[in-house]
Please model this.
Amino acid sequence: MAVPERTARPRRYLMCRPEHFDVTYQINPWMDLGVAVDTARALGQWEALVDTYRELGHEVHLIEPAPDLPDMVFAANAGVVLDARVYGALFLVEERRGEEALYRAWFAAHGFVDVVTPREVNEGAGDLLAVGDVILGAHGFRTSRGAHREAEECFTRPVVSLELVDPRFYHLDTALAVLDRETIAYYPGAFAPAALRELQHRFPDAIVAGEADAVAFGLNATSDGRHVVLSADAVGLIGQLRDRGFHPIGLDLSELRKAGGSAKCCTLELAGWSGPVR
Ligand code: ARG
Model:
């Protein structure tokens, strides 16, 4: 098989400095209250992620972090942004609900006019990932199936519902990475049989990741179509990406992983937004 030449497209991202990052409650199997978190180290790793994006030519916008919201660094959960429209988040867990209004205020202050306040529980782009003209939507742990219908109405794009079954992969973006309009990578063990059949049918050329790379958070990756930013620990997946013509960039995000997140969780793509008013 010929290896295709991959093309990058510049992106706009929203991110949140992990100034108040910590593990003070446990809402996924990665969070261990007995393990100390080094906030300064998390900040350094996060800054390297921001620097990487900027070096790649992407725009990074920042929202002010708030104390008492230790997971606010995971901007991907704040909503879904497509065609400059925002479908806001409604967190399942009380601990993160304080983030909703803060992100909503950021969108309002930055010229987003179509901001939909959800009725259904959903954790934003953690569980709703656009690929080409469809949206892949997860349910099973956080986001409800009702939210898939709501997102479908909001964006007038079909949502393909996929059931997650392994609690280690509680958000879709921990088990599946969108690489470009038609290419994804995923870990099969995270999905229910019907979801797996759906993925195999829709994406016969997908990169199928192994468990070790999935556990290393390798699928929690961002891609601009050419460069794929991911955990450096996902060595197998890094090789698979290279074989397929992508340019993987591995980073140490080990401190953020203590809360169950990595590169993609820290990054909310502002798709379709024309940028700040100057
Ligand atoms: N501790 C956070 C939670 O459990 C991590 C969120 C990770 N975000 C993501 N998009 N997967 O909600």
The first strand starts at residue 12 and ends at 16. The pocket of arginine is lined by residues 27-28, 31, 71, 74, 76-77, 96, 126, 171, 173-174, 259-261, 265 (CB under 6 Å).
